[in-house]
Amino acid sequence: MRLIWKLLRKHISIFELSVFFVANLIGMVVILGGIQVYSDIKPLVAGDNALIGNDYVVISKPVKRLNSKTSFSVDEIKELKAQDFTLRLGEFTPAQYKVYGGLNIGGQGFSTYLFFEAIPDEFVDVKSKEWKFQKAKHRVPIIIPRNYLNLYNFGFSQTSEQLPQITESMMKDLELDLTLSGGNRSDKFKGKVVGFTDRLNTILVPQEFIEWSNKRYAKHEEVEISRLILEVENPSDPKLLDYFEVHGYVAEDKPAESNKALFLLQLGVGVIIGIGLLFSILSLIILTLSIYLLLQKNIDKLRTLIQIGYKPATVATPYNAIAIILNASIIALSLWLISKARAIYIGFLAETTGREIEGGMTVTLIAGLTLMVCFIIFNLSIIRHKIVQISKRQ
User: Fold this and answer.
1) Which of 226, 253, 336, 386 has the most CB within a 10 Å radius?
2) Judgement on whether residues 236 and 275 belong to the same structural domain of the protein
């Protein structure tokens, strides 16, 4: 094998191989970088913790007259679940008792009647380890709309010099004094704000708390469901909008923008990956031409080696080794560069969005290894084809 290598390496062009290496490296970095950025950003656009919210629609019935019925029947809910546009459906469960809450801010006390609602946890857009009712401690975790805090900061606090503006972190440090009463019972609880929602315009408490407290304080009447939350593929789907109009349902939220954002993200990543593929295809063409030129330069030596008894596979081994080493080195270096770049931008994304970026490079690694195998197989097939041609012409 050393003898074969010494005979064939004379005409190997370092410049041509370097051009292939650089061009393919650029292409791989662009392709795999696009895949990695897409994997990291997609959850911020269309995941459960998306910046602009998922495709959820809250619906209710309009109040047409005094004491009009606005609750959904069991049949109406079943029919909604069966629609093609409905991926999941959740029910708002209201508290059927009185809730009185008080809060002290900057020495100033507030107290008012409140309302509690609950939805299944999979529809809650705030993830918190504290989102669990602690019955023994009489402690209730609460999620409030972010616009409620904005209403206080830019409304109530502006009308009184004694009311300071507060941040979200400060609000989470405060405790609410809650009084729950009904069914000849009255108990004191502590309320703890554990997060702020941009999706729902209600004061949320855990589902398990609502079920427990309704049994304890309510009159044991059947809970009427007046609001539903739907997860849909496209909130602007004409079928969905027509269904709402026919049945007289009101969508409380504007159509989510996540589909548009996800489309733009996919379009941008598609363009980036297309550019990367173009670089890679060009580099493959360069390598193919280099291999053909190299084999052509060594054609007499290759024929001689085959004539004296060397098998075509043995003669092709040095070229195969070059192709394997080059492609493996390109993928390894590409993944290393992407990991270094990701370590830089992932912290910036987390700080800018205020959300923890989960996941890793598994998808990118699989894509890189797949491309490497495909490129190596392509290169080896080119080399084998040319060697077989030479052996047949002897």
Assistant:
1) 386
2) no
CB 124 within 8 A of CB 204: yes
Residue 75 shares a structural domain with residue 135? yes
| 25: three-class secondary structure by DSSP | helix
Residues forming beta bridges with residue 139, ordered by sequence position = 134, 190
CB burial of residue 349 (10 Å; 0-12, 13-18, 19+):
middle
> What is the pLDDT at residue 255?
46
| Domain that residue 131 falls in | 56-251
Point out the residues of the chain with pLDDT beneath 50: 53-54, 255-256
Per the CB < 8 A criterion, the answer to whether 186 and 180 are in contact is yes
Alpha-carbon distance of 303 to 310, in angstroms, equals 10
Measure CA of the first residue to CA of the last residue in the chain; give whole Å: 22
Please indicate, yes or no, whether residues 96 and 222 belong to a single structural domain of this protein: yes
Residues 112 and 167 in one domain: yes
Cα separation of 178 and 103, whole Å?
Answer: 9
Same domain, residue pair 234 and 214:
yes
Residues 218 and 76 in one domain: yes
State residue 154's pLDDT score. Answer: 80
Specify whether 285 is located in the same domain as 209.
no
| Secondary structure class of 95 (helix, strand, coil) | coil
Domains in the chain: how many in total? 2
Cα distance between residue 351 and residue 347, in whole Å: 6
Using alpha carbons, select from 117, 111, 95, 133 the residue that is nearest to residue 177.
111
Among residues 251, 275, 291, which one ends one of the domains?
A: 251
Q: How many CB atoms lie within 10 A of CB 186?
A: 13
Instruction: Name the phi and psi angles at 194, rounded to 5.
Output: -110, -5
Tell me the C-alpha to C-alpha distance, in Å, between residue 197 and each of 44, 126, 262.
Answer: 15, 6, 21
pLDDT at residue 80, as a whole number: 92
Of 218, 251, 284, the domain-final residue? 251
Distance CA 43, CA 52 (A): 11
Q: Are residues 77 and 210 in the same domain?
A: yes
How many Cβ atoms sit within 10 Å of the Cβ of residue 265?
A: 18
For 347-363, how does the pLDDT look when each residue is reduced to its tens digit (9 = 90+)? Answer: 777 666 556 666 688 88
How far is it, in rounded angstroms, from Cα 107 to Cα 152? 16
CB 182 within 8 A of CB 113: no
Q: Which residue has the tokens 């602690």?
A: 134
